[in-house]
Every structure is written in structure tokens, then in C-alpha cells.
């Protein structure tokens, strides 16, 4: 089963054949998750969830998901990237 990206970033303009000057920057932005394993994070809205990031992955649609382990109780929770913020 081949995973299809949500959208394609063309390396070349399909009409003129010119190189897309932003191609490398856009590809790098698309693949850089907000968190990495070992980062400290918290949930700024709703219930408190201070945690350590223990997993970062893409779901089948290509969306980034973050697994946080709650610091005090060890509870695991899967978040969207925008649900968490960094803290030291």
C-alpha cells in the first residue's frame, strides 16, 4: 500500500517547466515536526497535561501526531501538534 501525501509540492512549474524556487524550503517545512522525543510540553487549554514527548509519527493521512507521557502519573495521550506547547 503506497501512502499518498495530502498535497503535492511541485519541484517544477507544470506549465513552464521552471524550477520552483521555494521547493526545498517547503519540503523541509512539511517534514519538520514541532516536537521531538524527549521534549517537555504542556497542554495550554483545557485540562492540565504536563508531559514528556515519547513519540512523534504520521497517521495514515500524513498528519503529525505526538505521544506525551504525563510527568506525574505516566498516563499516555496522543495529541495533534497544535494541542501542545513547549516548556522547560
Q: Please, how many helices? A: 1
The unreliable regions are none
Q: Which of globular, elongated, flat, extended, rod-shaped describes the shape?
A: elongated
The main β sheet shows up as: 5 strands, antiparallel
Calculate the mean pLDDT score and round it. 83
The CATH architecture of the domain at 33-86 comes to Roll
Q: By helix and strand content, what is the structural category?
A: mainly beta
Rounded to an integer, what's the Rg over CA atoms?
17 Å
Share of β-strand residues: 25-35%
What is the C-level CATH assignment of the domain at 33-86?
Mainly Beta
Q: Please give the order of strands in the largest beta sheet.
A: 4-3-2-1-5
Task: Describe this entry's structure for a reader.
The chain has a 5-stranded antiparallel β-sheet, with no helix packed on it. The chain is mainly beta and 88 residues long. The chain has a domain at 33-86: SH3 type barrels (Roll), CATH 2.30.30.60. The chain has one helix at residues 23-31, and strands at 40-42, 51-58, 64-70, 76-80, 85-86. The longest helix is centred in the first third of the chain and has 9 residues, at 23-31. Strand 2 and strand 3 (64-70) form a beta hairpin. The chain is elongated and about 55 Å long. The termini are far apart.
Which SSEs are present, and which pair or pack?
Blueprint: H1 23-31, E1 40-42, E2 51-58, E3 64-70, E4 76-80, E5 85-86
Antiparallel strand pairs: 1-2, 1-5, 2-3, 3-4
Amino acid at each position: 500500500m503506497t501512502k499518498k501525501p495530502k498535497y503535492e509540492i511541485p519541484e517544477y512549474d507544470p506549465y513552464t517547466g521552471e524550477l520552483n524556487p521555494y521547493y526545498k524550503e517547503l519540503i523541509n517545512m512539511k517534514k519538520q515536526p514541532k516536537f521531538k522525543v524527549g521534549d517537555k510540553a504542556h497542554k495550554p487549554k483545557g485540562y492540565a497535561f504536563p508531559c514528556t514527548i515519547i513519540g512523534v509519527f504520521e497517521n495514515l493521512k500524513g498528519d503529525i501526531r505526538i505521544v506525551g507521557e504525563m510527568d506525574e502519573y505516566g498516563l499516555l495521550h496522543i495529541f495533534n501538534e497544535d494541542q501542545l506547547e513547549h516548556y522547560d
